[in-house]
Amino acid sequence: MEILLSSAIGVLTAAGLYLVMRLRTFPVILGTSLLSYAVNVFLFATGRIAINQPPILTDTAQGYADPLPQALVLTAIVISFGMTAVVVIIALGAYLSGNDDHIDDQPGLFHGPVDGEEDGAEMGSDLAHQVPQQEAGR
Amino acid sequence: MNHWIVLPVVLPAMLAAGIVLGLRHHIVLQRVFSLAGLVALLALASGLFWTASDGTITLYQLGDWQAPFGIVLVADRLSTLMVLLTAVMAIPVLLYAIGSGWDYRGRHFHALFQFQIMGIMGAFLTGDAFNLFVFFEILLIASYGLMIHAGGTERLRSGVQYMLYNLLGSTLFLFALGTIYAETGTLNMADLALRVSEAVPDQSAGLRVAAVLLLMVFAIKAAVLPLHFWLPSSYANAPAPVAALFAIMTKVGAYGIIRFYTLVFPPGLEITQGLFDTWLMPAALLTLALGMIGVLGAFNLNRLVAFAVIGSMGMLLASVAVFTPAGITAALYYAIHSTLATAALFLLVDVVQSRRGSHGSSLLQTAPPMAGGALVAGLFFAAAIAMTGLPPLSGFLGKLLVLDAATGSPLVWWVWAVVLGSSLVAVVGFSRAGSVIFWKSHASPLAGGAEAPEDTQGAAEPHAPPAPQPALPMVAIGSLLALLVAVTVLAGPINRVLAATTAQLFDPAPYVSVVLETPGKKITYKGEAGAEKAGAAPADDTGAKSGAKSEAKSDTTSEAATKPGGTH
């Protein structure tokens, strides 16, 4: 059981780390999901491994499973689920608006003159059409 | 029990929910409520600060559960100081967002802003390590929304980087907390302090791993050198008021380091020997150097300020890494100063960017003079002086304190060399930026060669409607700078307060006793009042059970014995 659990954590972490170092958003998001699975299992293990034991006090119990890590894991699952959902949506937005799902800074970010100009122009026009839209919306 | 402590968390949370649910379509009402909320928050924060200013530590037990079993909020000098700093700094930032119209370039700005404030306040006030994680996540998820506020490809792109980096940071945080829990069986900070100090030698490997992991987590938040990559792009591309608000977020990382490594892993602890002088100090100095070199090398004003943030965090953490009372005092003073200075600079960058029209914040092109350039230039000059640490303003005092605190450190020559050298570099970087933007602006627009047509067009257009330059943004920036002046003028009293804060940090015994000895509801199981929590230390599990049989108390069901679902 210990071997199984620890190797599962190890494999998940290793796979997650490998994927996180990829260059495109999709594998990276998968990698963070794998890492969060790994950490969830790890949190479980921090209460020691107890099988078929109740987490609450009873008169008949022979031993106990630690309830606190289970509560922690629950919190961690909810949070990582929510975060993953948000990151997927925003990554999708970035992909659709930029037509490119590379995760690294785009080449020429350390702006030469041309890029700097594009940047400014884009920002300006962006705001220009954002504001009227909002005003119309209200 | 004093319920005021929980209000800095509850008030923004309720306000944010109310704004989302009820005021979605009323930007004016949103602004009114948001601002009123922040003013109330400032009053609350001042009250808490006042209460804590005589050294009392106030405890708030959520659900009235006693400390190691329930979650607690603790208001001591450091927490209330940071809460007050956040509240003070948030108001001008929000004023700027309102005055410049940033808040309706996308949706839900005010709600997210309030949620972010809630997360920050909670992170400063909580006395429970896992709760700290939860508040970190709250402030992060709000910051994701704020970061991509108003959209745009560049912003979404750096938003994704920022989020993924922070997701990794959160995972690391969970690993650290898991390790701590596995080793000590508790997550309450005060209880951790006790258990770590009693740790037996064969636990020390696990605890040391946990201490290092935790330091890495806070180092990510504080953007220390090898973990700083998320910062420049995200701060540079975030909307200006958001970037200004983020100025406090790096300080949350610094706060975490100061809190955990004075309370849980205090300086004298054998387990964490070498963590600061061998690892954090060189990393902080490199961060400082890299930040200021980045200031010199940036092609863009907003990236320049982002690198200045990295540099100032380096300075702050170099001071923390000395880890003497003087060092922490200097770090706190520098934290106050750099939060205000950074916020002012980010807001100014936005003003410059919007007034330069198509040239944006690029430092490689000269633009025609901007409207109201003299005032903007003056404010920029003042903020740059503060940021680089030149004499009249608080940056200089902060730097002096840091240099003075470093004299006891074995690395003192390194500290002095890097701090002074990087200051010079920063001065050069900022003056170059200021010259390009404000002085060279009078250069002929035709000098730009290929860009000439666009330049003339650009010159003609912004001048035709000199656009109603709203006063509110400048008032907001001005008030941040006025606060900087106040921090400079009142440096003496502030330093006395900070020294008292540090003294309290270096004597954690009262903190621990207040947290653990304040009575509250305990876990009872058939009369075994105050029994070890069932899972507190896995080895004790059977012990708790044998004690449980001692007496019968029929009204307590076994359900009530588990922590969260108490039926009282």
TrEMBL record, chain A:
<feature type="transmembrane region" description="Helical">
    <location>
        <begin position="28"/>
        <end position="51"/>
    </location>
</feature>
<dbReference type="Pfam" id="PF00420">
    <property type="entry name" value="Oxidored_q2"/>
</dbReference>
<dbReference type="InterPro" id="IPR039428">
    <property type="entry name" value="NUOK/Mnh_C1-like"/>
</dbReference>
<comment type="similarity">
    <text>Belongs to the CPA3 antiporters (TC 2.A.63) subunit C family.</text>
</comment>
<keyword id="KW-0812">Transmembrane</keyword>
<keyword id="KW-1133">Transmembrane helix</keyword>
<feature type="transmembrane region" description="Helical">
    <location>
        <begin position="6"/>
        <end position="21"/>
    </location>
</feature>
<dbReference type="InterPro" id="IPR050601">
    <property type="entry name" value="CPA3_antiporter_subunitC"/>
</dbReference>
<protein>
    <submittedName>
        <fullName>Multisubunit potassium/proton antiporter, PhaC subunit</fullName>
    </submittedName>
</protein>
<keyword id="KW-1003">Cell membrane</keyword>
<keyword id="KW-0472">Membrane</keyword>
<dbReference type="GO" id="GO:0005886">
    <property type="term" value="C:plasma membrane"/>
</dbReference>
<feature type="region of interest" description="Disordered">
    <location>
        <begin position="106"/>
        <end position="138"/>
    </location>
</feature>
<feature type="transmembrane region" description="Helical">
    <location>
        <begin position="71"/>
        <end position="96"/>
    </location>
</feature>
UniProtKB/TrEMBL annotation, chain B:
<keyword id="KW-1133">Transmembrane helix</keyword>
<feature type="region of interest" description="Disordered">
    <location>
        <begin position="527"/>
        <end position="568"/>
    </location>
</feature>
<keyword id="KW-0812">Transmembrane</keyword>
<keyword id="KW-0472">Membrane</keyword>
<feature type="transmembrane region" description="Helical">
    <location>
        <begin position="278"/>
        <end position="299"/>
    </location>
</feature>
<feature type="transmembrane region" description="Helical">
    <location>
        <begin position="238"/>
        <end position="258"/>
    </location>
</feature>
<feature type="transmembrane region" description="Helical">
    <location>
        <begin position="132"/>
        <end position="150"/>
    </location>
</feature>
<feature type="transmembrane region" description="Helical">
    <location>
        <begin position="162"/>
        <end position="182"/>
    </location>
</feature>
<feature type="transmembrane region" description="Helical">
    <location>
        <begin position="109"/>
        <end position="126"/>
    </location>
</feature>
<dbReference type="GO" id="GO:0008137">
    <property type="term" value="F:NADH dehydrogenase (ubiquinone) activity"/>
</dbReference>
<dbReference type="GO" id="GO:0005886">
    <property type="term" value="C:plasma membrane"/>
</dbReference>
<feature type="transmembrane region" description="Helical">
    <location>
        <begin position="411"/>
        <end position="430"/>
    </location>
</feature>
<keyword id="KW-1003">Cell membrane</keyword>
<feature type="region of interest" description="Disordered">
    <location>
        <begin position="448"/>
        <end position="467"/>
    </location>
</feature>
<dbReference type="InterPro" id="IPR050586">
    <property type="entry name" value="CPA3_Na-H_Antiporter_D"/>
</dbReference>
<feature type="transmembrane region" description="Helical">
    <location>
        <begin position="370"/>
        <end position="391"/>
    </location>
</feature>
<dbReference type="InterPro" id="IPR003918">
    <property type="entry name" value="NADH_UbQ_OxRdtase"/>
</dbReference>
<feature type="domain" description="NADH:quinone oxidoreductase/Mrp antiporter transmembrane">
    <location>
        <begin position="128"/>
        <end position="422"/>
    </location>
</feature>
<feature type="transmembrane region" description="Helical">
    <location>
        <begin position="78"/>
        <end position="97"/>
    </location>
</feature>
<feature type="transmembrane region" description="Helical">
    <location>
        <begin position="209"/>
        <end position="231"/>
    </location>
</feature>
<comment type="function">
    <text>NDH-1 shuttles electrons from NADH, via FMN and iron-sulfur (Fe-S) centers, to quinones in the respiratory chain. The immediate electron acceptor for the enzyme in this species is believed to be ubiquinone. Couples the redox reaction to proton translocation (for every two electrons transferred, four hydrogen ions are translocated across the cytoplasmic membrane), and thus conserves the redox energy in a proton gradient.</text>
</comment>
<feature type="transmembrane region" description="Helical">
    <location>
        <begin position="471"/>
        <end position="494"/>
    </location>
</feature>
